[in-house]
Amino acid sequence: MDYKSMRLFLFDMDGTIYLGYDLFPFTSELLATIRAQGHSYLFMTNNSSRSVADYVIKMKKLGIDAVPEDFITSSQVTAMYLLDHYDGKKLYVSGTESFKRELESAGVKNIYDTYREDIDVVVTGFDTELTFRKLEDMSKLLTRDLPFIAANPDLVCPTEFGYVPDCGSVCGMIYNATGKKPYYIGKPRPEMPLYAMERMKQKDPLITKENTLVIGDRIYTDIACGVNAGVNSLLVLSGETTADKAAQSETKPTAILSDCGELLKILKSEE
Ligand SMILES: [Mg+2]
Description:
The chain folds into 2 domains: 3-46 and 188-259, HAD superfamily/HAD-like (Rossmann fold), CATH 3.40.50; 76-184, Rossmann fold. Helices cover 38% and strands 19% of the residues. It is built from 10 helices and 15 strands. It has a 6-stranded parallel sheet with strand order 5-4-1-13-14-15, with helices on both faces. α1 runs parallel beside α10, α3 (74-86) packs across α4 and α5 (132-143) packs across α6. Bound molecules: magnesium ion (MG). Residues 12, 14-16, 216-218, 239 line the site of magnesium ion.
């Protein structure tokens, strides 16, 4: 892969630019180098319970000066998807207050969080404010044949003690009750890189699939979304995936490096 011809770098976060609460030592210089070379980057996250403002605070704690525009989240991409496919429809939304605010600020209208007969589409995010009433509302609506959209397919979300059920697990409960599976928006679906490209083309019209690179540590989410979107993908072995696992996987990244520090060396070489 010709790394130096890449114009848009889409970074997964945990395992790629930091690990847990520790920033990798090369991350700040890598981000600065990409911008100094006139190129762009975004941070991609599947987590639809936290707002971009929460991530800005987390990055500041880690030592990265990020602004809200540096992120693309599954909530934002869900909003864009809803505007493209269901604009003007009445939406039942099971999600956190911050998820609903994120949809509204992107221009999504007709958001309801109580059952009504005239709902057209059922939408869910990673709802850390979930109640049994919401499960019942969604089940009742989906017993009718309504479109069902979910922000991210993750089964679990890491915490300081282990894991809690994420959006995909709640959708599993709904599936058990109604037989309905959602259309998932976040990684590994192609929507996140595709909408990221659309957004960043306004800044850099030369961005294409050929010069867009998804970088992540998980094959079945990060690399798969790059492959599904038809853009380049770089697997880094600084998080979840070992070299052995990568060799066995059917999903193949465009390239593999041990970590983003190697990417930095390549971008800085032959300058
Ligand atoms: Mg990761």
